[in-house]
Amino acid sequence: MIVLAITIIVVSIASLIAASFIMSWGLFLKSYCGERLENSKEVMLTFDDGPHPDHTQEVLDVLKKRGVRALFFLIGERALEYPEIVKRISDDGHIIGVHSLRHTPEFTILSAKMVKKDLEASIKILEDLSGQRVNLFRPPYGVTNPSIGKAVKELNLKSIGWNVRSFDTMCENDTDRALKRVLKRVSGGSIILLHDRLKNSAGLLEKLLDYLEENGYYAKIFSKVL
Ligand SMILES: [Zn+2]
User: What pTM does this model have?
Assistant: First the structure.
């Protein structure tokens, strides 16, 4: 009996921990994480952790050249440092979402009140700099918990996850590895997670757009998130 009780407790705790890392479960916060659509060739590109003084501009140059619009989940304090890049993201027709004020691990242990304060401050910065209304959110590290869920709900934000992860931050010097991961998983309805702060961000994006084009896919902002 005791063994069974301990097993149930351990499994429950493990499930809660797993749920905080797996956004698509939506236990603490419902998020739109893309779909697998048989009859569609549409995918959506999302870039996290910007703006970066150099690499975001390189990514924007590629997107402009290829006529692709994307989502950028920006960090509030970084946006304050590079206001002209935030403005350019918006002027180029991309949509800006909030990705916390500082993107530190502490965000995941804040109270709901503090998460709300953090996001309100970030949204104010992003809206002032871009002129856009910001109502999309992506949790730092993809981690959700009851505090984040409550704050996001109170602020009426739409949480956007992904269903194709490039792991580009883990293979910064090997864009082919990141590319292969994406190509293996991509399908119509995919939301692809990329970053615009890496020295090879633009290179990876070029190769990805080549592949998508060659295979009949096209990247756009899904109307569902607007
Ligand atoms: Zn991030």
Answer: 0.93
